[in-house]
């Protein structure tokens, strides 16, 4: 079956749009007409897409599927109802291809595999494990929880840095206005006064040198673009730059914690679905985008393959705390690693939220003090001469 997008006139005379599954164009027209709608246009939607979708769209999809499965609706019907209700074209294109395969008897994992770039290897791997164990509804619920938590801490980060960015933006605008416009006018008032250069050296420095500094900042743009290019293209440069970022106080540890939380959460979901540990760990490794952290986890996996215990293999990684290693050791001894990784991920998540709040507060206070100090220095330099002349004139 194919997916068709249509525009039609309803029985009430309203212009509406939607989508239907049909064998061909004639079948699509007939299906729309039987729904008491007069088709104006019918266009076939391609069933292949390689574009990525946002976390919000992915979350919305799994939220719908989770609700439908809990209401005992078959997953095929749940996907079809989502196509009728939501309009993200990339997601609809991918789901159309998936639904066609599912209706033709293809397994869930194989159907989603065709849209690997859209959904990612981690989600597809978890869906494959769900199909093997028959716990599709449970895995969908766990994937939904994982996406909700991921969305939550990302939104917290955005909120944490929003105020500092706003403060810096306002401060920069005020400083540029003061230096570029007020400075020259004040200099023109005092430049003919004898000894003014000596008496108001700060004023002349701000008005004469800082504007040139602002002009030279344009050269920082190509340097930044070069670093960004090296980060994206050159593997060695990306490793060095990322290693430097991971050493930055507050920011580095937060990046490490979010990645380790993601690893633990995926391990918890996969192990809960009765997937073997190495397969679950491979899924977790696929979720890591930072090469420095990924290499550490890969080394731990290689040690497990060589015969090391899981706790010993992870103890050699520099990104995992001793308390987490102890929890893994306990889970390994009790043969309940799923619970251990669930506890670790919950603890890591609480730390992440706390660290985000502290980072936001530190950035807000630090940037406010810094920009305030610079602003006061410039204002004093620009307006002190005026105050001096007013004071002398009043004597």
Write up what this structure looks like.
The longest helix is centred in the last third of the chain and has 58 residues, at 337-394. This protein is mostly helical and 395 residues long. The chain folds into 3 domains: 2-44; 55-119, no CATH class; 134-139 and 146-395, no CATH class. It has helices at residues 25-34, 55-70, 75-85, 89-103, 108-113, 116-119, 121-133, 136-190, 196-199, 201-208, 210-216, 220-233, 235-246, 251-272, 277-286, 291-306, 310-315, 322-333, 337-394; strands at 2-10, 15-22, 37-44. 28% of the residues are buried. The protein is built from 19 helices and 3 strands. α2 (55-70) runs antiparallel to α8 and α18 (322-333) packs antiparallel against α19 (337-394). β1 and β2 (15-22) form a beta hairpin. It has a 3-stranded antiparallel β-sheet.
């Amino acid at each position: 079956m194919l997916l068709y997008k249509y525009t039609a006139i309803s029985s009430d005379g309203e212009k509406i749009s939607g989508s239907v599954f049909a064998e061909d164009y004639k079948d699509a027209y007939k299906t729309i007409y039987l729904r008491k709608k007069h088709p104006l246009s019918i266009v076939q939607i391609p069933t292949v897409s390689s574009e990525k979708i946002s976390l919000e769209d992915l979350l919305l999809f799994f939220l719908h599927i989770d609700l439908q499965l809990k209401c005992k609706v078959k997953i095929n019907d749940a996907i079809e109802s989502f196509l009728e209700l939501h309009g993200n074209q990339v997601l609809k294109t991918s789901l159309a291809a998936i639904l066609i395969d599912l209706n033709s008897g293809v397994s869930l994992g194989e159907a989603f595999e065709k849209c690997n770039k859209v959904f990612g290897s981690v989600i597809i791997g978890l869906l494959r494990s769900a199909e093997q164990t028959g716990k599709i509804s449970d895995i969908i619920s766990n994937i939904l929880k994982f996406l909700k938590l991921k969305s939550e801490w990302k939104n917290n980060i955005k909120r944490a840095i929003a105020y500092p960015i706003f403060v810096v933006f306002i401060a920069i605008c005020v400083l540029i206005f003061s230096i570029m416009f007020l400075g020259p006018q004040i200099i023109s008032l005092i430049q003919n006064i004898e000894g003014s250069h000596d008496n108001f050296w700060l004023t002349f420095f701000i008005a004469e040198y800082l504007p040139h500094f602002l002009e030279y900042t344009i050269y920082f743009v190509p340097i930044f673009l070069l670093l960004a290019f090296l980060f994206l293209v050159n593997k060695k440069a990306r490793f060095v730059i990322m290693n430097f970022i991971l050493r930055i106080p507050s920011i580095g540890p937060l990046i490490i914690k979010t990645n380790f939380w993601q690893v633990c959460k995926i391990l918890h979901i996969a192990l809960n679905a009765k997937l073997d540990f190495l397969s679950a760990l491979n899924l977790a490794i696929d979720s890591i985008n930072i090469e420095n952290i990924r290499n550490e986890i890969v080394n731990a996996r290689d040690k497990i393959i060589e015969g090391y215990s899981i706790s010993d293999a992870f103890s050699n990684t520099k990104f995992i705390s001793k308390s987490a290693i102890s929890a893994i050791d306990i889970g390994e001894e009790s043969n309940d690693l799923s619970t251990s990784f669930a506890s670790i991920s919950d603890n890591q998540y609480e730390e992440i939220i706390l660290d985000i709040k502290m980072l936001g507060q530190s950035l807000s206070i630090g940037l406010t003090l810094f920009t305030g100090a610079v602003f006061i220095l410039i204002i004093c330099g620009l307006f002190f001469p005026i105050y001096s002349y007013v004071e002398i004139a009043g004597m």
